């Protein structure tokens, strides 16, 4: 175009315009204002349009123009142009006047799809030079392994149109800058307990999570939040950490000792007092001392003129358990005294004990022996009594007894005498040494002197024979002693009464009264314990005394009538096993009996469940009768508290419906409501709204399998599926809810009781199968 010419001329002028905005240019423009590059302004420039054509990209305008000099003032004519281009997710800035340059600017979160966003405004029309340039969303989350500008350690990035959102992992929350995550201290709530047990729990916060612990004496339940008491007494056969008796308490336990034991300073070990409660043997003494191992060692002895009914052990030791043991063994076949580890002493009578020596003397005699036996015996007794002091002493005398004459034997030669061979007889006799002291004054020390007396007597007889002085005249003929022999060594004997036991030792023999609690009959050789229905409170008795009617002794060998007590109910004794422990008797009801803990009142227990079949009175102690006699039920469950045990109760829950008709056997439901009609009452149905007569429950949760299947159906209906057909829940592992995304809102479904969401299993599972880190 040439400016300054005065006549009209036809020219071609190319305008590049946005056809979307300028779809009708013919006649639309009356004049344009041309910018003078020199800084001035041209007068109004009129154009007459000749032709306008469009070739799909450019408009071709053909027009006539002329220049008219007008008035001196400049007249500006506003040109009409196409409306400013618009862009999705952006806007055009600049280029408002002709020949100016503008640029396409994208909204925050978008970027250009082309490397240039420049456009030009030609001749009053504005349009982009690069119409293909558009704005597209920026994915801010691509960097940092998909976490973009968000917290790369404890969070994540969600891209959206024109923006992005930062989120935090479970256990964290966004800070005010909306980008970084900080740990949530779940323990701040509830005075530092968080969601943990408010009474016995401890909340421990950790980075991104927390855990619940329990105070000493408690342990976590399966829900990992609430606490239950720990029964410390379950281990070690019910003794737990204790030595003897463990009693569980809420959050703790208490150690105690059996009766007769003392608790040590540490509170765990029970120390037996051993013999502190034992008296010495009756008519005797006990010498005891503590040992380095914590027990005791004792030796026992009897008073003068008293002896043990059996040979005691060399000593007795007591261990920490209160049990006594013999050292070296004893001669007691069984313990005669039940109230001490050693036997009692009884009065011994040595005056009735004596030694006997069997002897014989050969005599040479050529007379008629057979016709003169009586004379021979008489003459021999004179010979013996004429012996000197050897046959007697101040404390004893030697007596001859049981003289017997054996005729027809030949005289035997002696090494010390020149005996003759020929007709003879043999006199057989016993020499008995008897104390000259009163019987109650003879002691065991006196008895060896009797043995010595026998020896002296034998030596004197031998001396008399050797010197020819031991002879006698029978029927006018001389009978001369040829030899002497002891045919049996001296043995002790004792002449004891009923109720006394004969004790024979090497150099002693005596009679011993049987101790209290025992007796000796005429045809027995030892003292015997009195039986359960008897007692004996005196020594040296040949029988026992009967316990009063209706009473029995708690052990054999009772020494007092007070040991006889009412005991066995509905049967005869014995019904208890009693043992000596730490100086006192400990009894318990025998097998087939049950009753008081001390074993003193027992009733028959045919089913062996530890409860008496008949009512029994246990004094100050409550004894419970078996609620199902004849049927073993040691726990005695009685759900409806009607006194009839569950194992034999025809209506276990007491709802008035017999067990064989009750649709909920263990929960009272007199109306027999069954919501889903599956034959299982709603009160005990593990899936109330879904029929499941088999009550299948493969994961052992409170909800049955049928309910869990229904849950899966609900989730499938309410939750949007991922491309692989699964769904993504929120929150993830360990939630008690299924919270999944729907269009426009979230759906929340509660997990069944005792279950939590498992992201791995994509279902609500038992709490112990879900990781809750």
If you had to describe this structure to a student in words, what would you say it looks like?
Belongs to the thrombospondin family. This is chitinase. It catalyses: Random endo-hydrolysis of N-acetyl-beta-D-glucosaminide (1->4)-beta-linkages in chitin and chitodextrins. Helix content is 7%, strand content 33%. It contains five helices and 50 strands. It is elongated, with a radius of gyration of 62 Å.
How are the SSEs placed, and which strands pair?
Layout: E1 9-15, E2 31-32, E3 45-54, E4 59-66, E5 90-94, E6 101-106, E7 110-112, E8 118-122, E9 125-128, E10 135-137, H1 143-146, E11 155-160, E12 163-168, E13 172-174, E14 181-183, H2 189-192, E15 201-206, E16 209-214, E17 218-220, E18 227-229, E19 245-249, E20 252-256, E21 262-263, E22 270-271, E23 284-290, E24 296-302, E25 306-308, E26 315-318, E27 324-327, E28 345-349, E29 353-364, H3 373-385, E30 396-410, E31 423-435, H4 447-466, E32 471-474, E33 477-494, E34 500-505, E35 508-513, E36 518-519, E37 528-529, E38 534-535, E39 545-546, E40 552-553, E41 564-565, E42 568-569, E43 576-581, E44 584-589, E45 593-595, E46 602-604, H5 705-718, E47 737-741, E48 746-750, E49 755-758, E50 763-766
């Amino acid at each position: 175009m040439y400016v300054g010419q005065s006549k009209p001329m036809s020219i071609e002028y190319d305008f590049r315009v946005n056809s979307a905005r300028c779809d009708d240019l013919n006649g639309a423009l009356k004049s344009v204002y041309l910018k003078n590059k020199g800084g001035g302004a041209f007068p109004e420039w009129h154009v007459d349009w000749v032709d306008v054509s469009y070739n799909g990209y450019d408009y071709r305008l053909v027009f006539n123009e002329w220049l008219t000099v007008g008035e001196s003032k400049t007249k500006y004519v506003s040109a009409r142009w196409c409306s400013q281009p618009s862009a999705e997710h952006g806007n055009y800035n600049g280029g408002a006047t002709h020949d100016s340059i503008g640029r396409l600017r994208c909204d925050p979160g978008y970027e250009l799809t082309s490397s240039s966003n420049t456009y030009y405004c030609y001749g009053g029309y504005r349009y982009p030079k690069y119409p293909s340039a558009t704005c597209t969303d920026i994915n801010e989350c691509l960097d940092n392994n998909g976490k973009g500008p968000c917290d790369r350690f404890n969070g994540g990035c969600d891209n959206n149109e024109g923006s992005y959102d930062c989120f935090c992992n479970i256990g964290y929350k966004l800070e005010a800058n909306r980008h970084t995550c900080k740990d949530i201290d779940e323990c701040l709530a509830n005075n530092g307990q968080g969601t943990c047990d408010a009474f016995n729990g401890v909340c421990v916060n950790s980075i991104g999570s927390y855990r619940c612990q329990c105070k000493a004496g408690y342990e976590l339940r399966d829900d990992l939040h609430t606490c239950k008491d720990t029964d410390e007494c379950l281990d070690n056969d019910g003794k737990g950490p204790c030595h003897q008796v463990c009693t569980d308490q809420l959050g703790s336990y208490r150690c105690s000792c059996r009766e007769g034991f003392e608790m040590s300073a540490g509170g765990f070990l029970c120390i037996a007092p051993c013999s502190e409660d034992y008296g010495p043997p009756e008519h005797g003494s006990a010498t005891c001392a503590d040992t380095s191992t914590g027990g005791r060692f004792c030796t026992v002895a009897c008073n003068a003129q008293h002896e043990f009914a059996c040979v005691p052990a060399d000593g007795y030791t007591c261990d920490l358990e209160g049990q006594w043991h013999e050292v070296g063994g004893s001669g007691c076949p069984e313990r005669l005294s039940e109230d001490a580890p050693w036997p009692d002493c009884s009065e011994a009578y040595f005056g009735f004990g004596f030694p006997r020596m069997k002897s014989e003397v050969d005599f040479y005699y050529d007379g008629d022996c057979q016709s003169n036996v009586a004379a021979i015996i008489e003459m021999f007794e004179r010979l013996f009594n004429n012996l000197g002091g050897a046959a007697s002493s101040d404390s004893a005398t030697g007596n001859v007894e049981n003289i017997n004459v054996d005729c027809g034997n030949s005289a035997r030669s002696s090494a010390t005498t020149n005996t003759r061979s020929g007709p003879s007889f043999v006199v057989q006799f016993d020499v008995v040494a008897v104390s000259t002291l009163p019987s109650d004054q003879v002691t065991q020390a006196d008895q060896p002197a009797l043995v010595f007396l026998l020896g002296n007597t034998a030596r004197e007889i031998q001396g008399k024979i050797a010197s020819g002085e031991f002879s006698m005249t029978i029927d006018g003929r001389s009978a001369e002693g040829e030899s002497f022999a002891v045919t049996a060594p001296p043995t002790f004997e004792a002449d004891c009464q009923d109720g006394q036991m004969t004790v024979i030792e090497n150099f002693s023999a005596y009679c011993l009264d049987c101790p209290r609690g025992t007796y000796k009959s005429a045809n027995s050789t030892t003292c015997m314990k009195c039986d359960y229905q008897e007692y004996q409170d005196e020594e040296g008795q040949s029988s026992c005394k009967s316990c009063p009617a209706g009473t029995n002794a708690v052990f054999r060998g009772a020494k007092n009538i007070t040991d006889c007590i009412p005991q066995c109910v509905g049967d005869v004794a014995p019904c208890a096993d009693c043992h000596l422990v730490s100086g006192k008797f400990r009894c318990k009801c025998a097998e087939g009996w049950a009753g008081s803990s001390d074993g003193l009142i027992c009733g028959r227990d045919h089913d062996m469940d530890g409860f008496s079949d008949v009512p029994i009175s246990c004094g100050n102690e409550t004894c419970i009768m078996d609620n199902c006699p004849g049927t073993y039920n040691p726990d005695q469950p009685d759900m409806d508290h009607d006194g009839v045990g569950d194992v034999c109760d025809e209506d276990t829950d007491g709802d008035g419906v017999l067990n064989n008709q009750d649709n909920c056997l263990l929960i009272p439901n007199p109306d027999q409501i069954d919501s889903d009609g599956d034959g299982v009452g709603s009160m005990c149905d593990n899936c109330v709204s879904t029929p499941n007569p088999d009550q299948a429950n493969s994961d052992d949760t409170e909800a049955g399998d049928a309910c869990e299947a229904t849950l899966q159906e609900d989730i499938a209906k309410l939750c949007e599926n991922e491309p692989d057909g699964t769904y993504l829940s929120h929150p993830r592992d360990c939630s008690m809810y299924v919270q999944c995304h729907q269009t426009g809102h979230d759906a929340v479904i509660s997990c069944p009781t005792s279950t939590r969401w498992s992201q791995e299993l994509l279902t609500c599972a038992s709490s112990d199968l879900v990781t809750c880190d």
